[in-house]
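pasting input
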Amino acid sequence: MISGAAPKKLDRRIVIKAAVAGGVAQLAAPFVLTARAADTVKIGLDNPLTGTFAALGKNELIGAQLAVDQMNAKGGNLGRQVELLVEDSTSGDTATAVQKALKLIDRDKVDFLIGNINSALAQAMANTSNQKGVFHIVPGGHTDTVTGSQCHWNVFRVCNTTRMETNSVSKLLLEGYGKKWYFITTDYAFGHSLQDGFEASLKQANGTKLGADFTPLGTTDFSANLIKAQSVGPDAIILLLAGDDMINCLKQAVQFGLNKKFHIAGAQQELEVNEGLPPDALFGDWVFEWYWKQPGVPHVEQFVADIRKRSGGKVPTARTWFGHAAMWSCQLAAEKAKSLEPIKLAKAMQGLVLPPEVALMPNNPYYRIGDNQLMPTLFVGQSQPAPAGGDPEDLFKVSQLVKGDEAALPVDQTGCKMEWPS
Amino acid sequence: MTQLLLFNVFNGLIIGAFYALMALGLSLILNLSGVINFAHGGFLAIGGYLAYTLIPYLGFWGALLVSPFLVAFIGIVIERVLIRRLYGRDPLYSLLLTFGLAFMIEDGTRFIWGAQSLPYQIPGWLAAPLSSEYFFLTGYRVFMMILVAAAVLGLFLILNHTRLGLRIRAGTLDLETVSVLGVNVRVLRNLNFGLGIYLAGLAGVLAVGMLGLEPTIGDNLIMPSFIAIIVGGLGSLPGTLAGGLLIGVASGVTSVFFPSASEAVIYVMMAAVLIVRPRGLLGEEGRF
């Protein structure tokens, strides 16, 4: 027999097991630990560094690292140096995200927990941090329940609720493009919440939902959904997708020529997505949660310059701002409470107004009493190809600034019933 | 409704052809070397990234032509350095190796090109529908179909009308006898691996024309490719082709009625085939 010529028995069962393992592999991911030091204020960041949301997670991390360096340069938190402990939550595995959160809480004894980008993971982490009584900030997980029906006294959120996003842009869409909409929505908590918000706006305006396709997260081919949308002749095709799903769908919509037949729009759009699109796919009305080009707004230029130094010249995105604002919120709450005790921190955080160097936007954003939701400014506008001779990352034109508390539901309609520990 | 269904059947065939292209590469390697190549999606990603990198120097067409060959070369080197050592061992070894390799490639692309999606621009005349009525027939999709058909035809010509192809086919049936007859089995496996990876590279270059170019681009495409092999039948390249087309159509048609089940349906198909006809539609009985 020749050496190594014939493979050992390979049967169908092995191939099937391998395919199953391939599916499971999507859940596996390395973890990251930073160096540990004693007698520091510890902030644990449990966010995706691998998978679908890796790019967003890395931008939040860059913003968080800048904030930590700024805080330490100013003497730290309550006189102690701040230490950032980073864990990879994965992009979609709830069990891993919770396990990493527990590791940060039980083993590393963090004073603050930050995370997650994925809505489902954010909610699971919030429930865990509440059981453990740890102060927790959700930087970028949008589903409404985090500061709604499943709100907790210890959990605050920097990014907007999905309802704030849909309310901020729906008037523009209804008045500008018509009342017959077709939805293509990502099939998880984030997409469902967004669609609920838009449907409420449609109902209020006596509009019509012509159809809705829920697509699995990670869908590569949207042609069947786009064919269906085209067949019912909507006024607008509303894309409620995220990350690479949004890129895939927009590229395919352009190739089908649908952007020339219908208005294509949505709620949340991100600079990370726009940077992954070719120029002809940069169109439509969207909401940005923060934008780097804000002439005349104090401290924004300095923030952009600081981030450019850390990210190979790239400008900060909303995600970078989320990470930065979340870290600084921990510092501000501790300074106001003069303590790291979670209940005191939470009490101090309610109603806290972000100072201009942290807010980096107009209208004095603040954490609302009653649901712990930050009330920032929303940037409504249109995606655009980079202007000739301009900055290649200037891919959005802000046409309207909407105050967070004007877009948000009143606290009594959010479903949040906050219970404080006795 | 009939028109909508027909649209989706045709569209499913287009997507299925793409799955088939990936699955054929996987199948080639599996049949001759017994390696379940989990890194196939990673090679696809490399194909896309290389094309993106080469476009400024070679243009769209140059990058399309050169990138798959570069990916095939990388595949040949990896086979020579890593995979070859595991032939003859339990298939689990190569499975674990390619599994780890997939992570290394993903993180490698992330390190070199960044985690964020990159904009990949195809020529304007390709990025448009050919008619307003049959708008899903875009220039790019038709081009992709033609290229996939040419690649499949080329593969079958190589396998049926060249000495290399004859040896690959013979080796698939009985590698030991082929070796005894004087064929250098090491070189044969090496070239066969390169051929399979070439198809992955080609699939990668084609994929980035309609999908976002990011490090995990291969992840979502690898599972349908495995399923195409299982549905079509292990050991059968025509079966793999048929399996790819079938799952593409099934997914497209399901999207009309139950969009959220468009992914699940291909797994249901796989389960049904395994229950009713475990060797797959065109798989040879007793071969696996």
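fyi Chain A has two domains: 41-160+296-375, 163-288+380-389+392-405.
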